[in-house]
Amino acid sequence: MNNYQVTNISVEQGLIEYISPDANAQIDFGSLFDGPSLFFSSAAAVSMQWVVAQLSCEEARHNMSGYACASANSECKTIRHTGGYVGYRCNCISGYQGNPYIESGCVDTNECLQLNICPEICNNTIGSYACNPCPYKTEYDPVNRRCVIRKHQNLLLGIAIGLSVGLGILLLCLCGVFLIRRWRRDIQKQLRKKYFQKNKGLLLEQLISSDEKQSDNKIFSLEELQKATNNFDPARIFGSGGHGMVYKGILSDQRVVAIKKPKVLAEGEISQFINEVAILSQINHRNIVRLLGCCLETEVPLLVYDFIPNGSLFKIIHDDQSNKEFSLSWHDSLRIATEAAGALCYLHSAASVSVFHRDVKSSNILLDGSYTAKVSDFGTSRLIPIDQTHVITNIQSTFGYLDPEYYYTGQLNEKSDVYSFGVVLLELLLRKEPIFTSDSGSKINLSNYFLSERRTRPTTEMVTSQLLEQASEDELNTVASLAEECLRLQGEERPTMKQVEMKLQLLINKGLRSCNGFPQSSCEIQAPPPVRLAAHHCQPLSTDGDNRANIASSSCYALEQEFMSSATLPR
C-alpha cells in the first residue's frame, strides 16, 4: 500500500480517501480482514471507511488498555453492516470537536461562531451554548454580532432634531413676519400722521374741543372705523353721498353710525370734507344730521354721522310706492317740509356765523326711524360771517335745483337755498323729479314746467289723485303759491327760510284747528305725531341747548311762541 496516495482522512467519519496507482485494479480490502467488510474499491479514486478494531464498543471497553477512545470527551460508536457489526470508532461528543483518540483531543466547540445560530445574543458554554435576548431598547446586529440601540431610537432622535430645526426656522419666520408687520405698521403710522397733518387735524381737534356743547364729537382712529365696517366691506355700503360712499357701521359701544368715505382723491374734495367737519362741529339741531366725529388718518377725511335708517326724501317720493311700508301722506309731506325749512332757517339765522347749504335737494333730506327730517351733506356749504350777505364762489349745486341768479352771477346767498327748497316743495306737491321725462320722451325742468302750467291750469289738475283725497284745495294752492315765491328769478323777491317755515307751520296749525270738535278718526291722517311738531326756530349756532339760548330776533321769538302754543290744541 505504499504506492497509494491518500487525499483525505476524516477521523470523525472514519473515512479515508485515496488514489490507486492502477486505475484498472480491482482490490478487495475486505479480504484483508476476517468477517464483514466495509472496504471496496473499483476505481482509481477510492473512498474507504475504517474502524479501530473489529470489536463492539462493549467488547472494547473491557480491554481498557487497548481502548482507543482516549479523550475524556469522546464516545465509542459501533459500526454495523448488513452482516453484523464491523468494529468501533471514536467520536467527540456533541459540543466538542477534535481527535478522540488522544487525551484532551476533544475540545469545546464555540457554536456562537456559526452564523444565525441564535436570533439575538449567543453565549458559548462548555459543550453547548445559550441564546439570550438583547437588553431593553436594543436589538441584535447579525453583521457585527452584537446588540445595538434600536433604529427607532435613532428615528426619534432624528425627529427631535428635525423638529428643533423646524421650530427654529419657524421662529425665525415668525420673527421676520413680526418685524415686517411692525415695519409696515410704522410706515402706516407715519403715513397716517402725514395725512393727519395734511388734513389740518390739530386745527379740527381744537375746533371740536373748544365747544363744550360738542364734547361728544371725537377724532376716530382708522382701525376703529375699519372694525366698525368690516374693513369697509362693499356689503356695508348704504348709499352714495354727494362726495363719497356711505357705509353702515357699528362702533365698539354698539352705536350704529353712517361713515362717509370719499370716492375720489382730489384736493378740492379734501377741502370740502374739512369744510363739512368745520360746519357740522358747530351745529346742533334736531333736524340736522348729527356729526359724531371724523377720521383724519386717511388721504381724505372720513366723517361719522348718526345713522339715519329710512333713507332720503327723494326715495320716499319717487321710488315705487308698492315696495315701501311708509306711504308719504299730505300731512307727512307738510311736516317734513316744515322740519327741513326749520333746519335751513337755523343755518341762515345763526348769531355768530351763517351757513349757506348750497346743495338743498330731496336726496339730502334724510328720514330717521320716526320719519323726522334730517338735513344732511354739507360738503359744498359755506360759512358766512355775520356782517356779509353773500359770497362769490364757484358754481356748485345739483342741476334741477340750481338757483338761476347764483348760476349767472356766482354770488351765493341765503336766497339760493330758498330757490332749491322751492324745487323740493314742487317734488312734494307734484310728485315729479326735478328733471323728469315727459310723455313725449323729452327731459323737462320741473320748476319751468310748474311755472308754465300754473299760468293756464289750476293746481288741482297738476297734483296726483292721492293728494286730492288728502288735501284741501286751499292747502294745495297755499303750498303752490309758496313754491312759486321761492322760485322767483330775483333773489330779493323770494321769502326768507324763516318766512317759508312760518307759512308751512301756520298751514299745519290751520289743519289741526280744523279738527277741533270732530271725532278723532276724522283727523288721524292729517294730525302728525306730537313729537314731530316740536321745532327749533332760528336758534344761534352758539346755543348751549337750554332755554337760556339767545333768540336771533324778536319776530322769530314770537313765531316760536305761536308754534309752542299750537301744540296745546286738541288733536
Fold topology:
Blueprint: E1 5-10, E2 15-19, E3 45-49, H1 57-62, E4 74-81, E5 84-92, E6 96-98, E7 106-108, E8 121-125, E9 128-132, E10 138-141, E11 146-149, H2 151-198, H3 201-210, E12 218-219, H4 222-228, E13 237-241, E14 244-250, E15 256-262, H5 267-280, E16 291-295, E17 302-306, H6 313-318, H7 330-348, E18 353-356, E19 365-367, E20 373-375, E21 382-385, E22 390-392, H8 404-409, E23 411-413, H9 414-430, E24 435-437, E25 443-445, H10 446-454, H11 465-470, H12 473-486, H13 497-513, H14 530-533, H15 554-566
Parallel strand pairs: 12-16
Antiparallel strand pairs: 1-2, 2-3, 4-5, 6-7, 8-9, 10-11, 13-14, 14-15, 15-17, 16-17, 18-21, 19-20, 22-23, 24-25
Helix pairs in contact: 7-9, 7-13, 9-12, 12-13, 13-15
Task: Characterise this structure.
The protein has 571 residues and is an alpha+beta fold. Among the domains are: 5-109, no CATH class; 199-307, Phosphorylase Kinase, domain 1, CATH 3.30.200. The chain has 15 helices and 25 strands. It has helices spanning 57-62, 151-198, 201-210, 222-228, 267-280, 313-318, 330-348, 404-409, 414-430, 446-454, 465-470, 473-486, 497-513, 530-533, 554-566, and strands spanning 5-10, 15-19, 45-49, 74-81, 84-92, 96-98, 106-108, 121-125, 128-132, 138-141, 146-149, 218-219, 237-241, 244-250, 256-262, 291-295, 302-306, 353-356, 365-367, 373-375, 382-385, 390-392, 411-413, 435-437, 443-445. A 6-stranded mixed sheet has the order 12-16-17-15-14-13, sandwiched between helices. The protein has a 3-stranded antiparallel sheet with strand order 1-2-3, with no helix packed on it. Strands 4-5 form a two-stranded antiparallel sheet. A hairpin with a 5-residue loop joins strand 14 and strand 15 (256-262). Helix 7 runs antiparallel to helix 13 (497-513), helix 9 (414-430) runs antiparallel to helix 12 and helix 12 (473-486) runs antiparallel to helix 13. It is rod-shaped, with a radius of gyration of 59 Å. The termini are far apart. The model is unreliable at 385-391 and 517-571 (pLDDT under 50).
